Structure to design on (181 residues):
């Protein structure tokens, strides 16, 4: 893992832009961004995700090539970037546990999405930027069905089912402020 800034993230995604778009168009869609939590501890990083965000908002990359296919979202990894918040150890749908997503993680995840979307010429909407809970719901293994994956379905101060909307809203605000430009 390597710690990076938002400026460095911009350069990393710029280098992968062409390959990401080629992969995504090869499966008939735009580049996608998926937001996860690790269900682990703060400070515990996983190479399954391109980007890990720690409790204090620090950003870590597991690769220098964001076009590298990682195993983060069932049947959705080609031409996609996986972002994980390092948190949610022992979380349940009733209690986010002793290490819930922090305010810093939510804000920085939105900033990272803003940078990625700006560089990749992506609209920040549910079709292109979604939580693992939303992707899982679309594929019948999320909170509306079996609840196998419910990452960022909600977090402190956010109702169940609204996590993705909150992060996308923040990402659009940051993008409109020029983050990533």
């Amino acid at each position: 893992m390597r710690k990076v800034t938002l400026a460095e993230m911009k350069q990393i995604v710029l280098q992968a832009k062409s390959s990401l778009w080629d992969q995504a168009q090869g499966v008939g869609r735009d580049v996608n961004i998926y937001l996860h939590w690790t269900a682990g501890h703060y400070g515990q990083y996983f190479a399954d995700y391109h980007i890990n965000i720690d409790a204090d908002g620090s950003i870590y990359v597991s690769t220098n090539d964001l076009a590298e296919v990682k195993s983060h979202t069932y049947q959705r990894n080609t031409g996609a970037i996986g972002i994980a918040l390092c948190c949610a150890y022992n979380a349940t749908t009733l209690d986010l546990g002793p290490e819930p997503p922090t305010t810093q993680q939510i804000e920085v995840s939105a900033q990272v999405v803003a940078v990625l979307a700006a560089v990749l010429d992506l609209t920040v909407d549910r079709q292109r930027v979604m939580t693992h809970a939303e992707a899982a719901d679309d594929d019948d293994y999320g909170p509306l069905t079996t609840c196998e994956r419910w990452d960022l379905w909600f977090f402190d101060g956010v109702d169940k089912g609204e996590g993705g909307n909150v992060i996308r809203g923040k990402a659009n605000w940051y993008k409109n402020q020029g983050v990533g430009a």
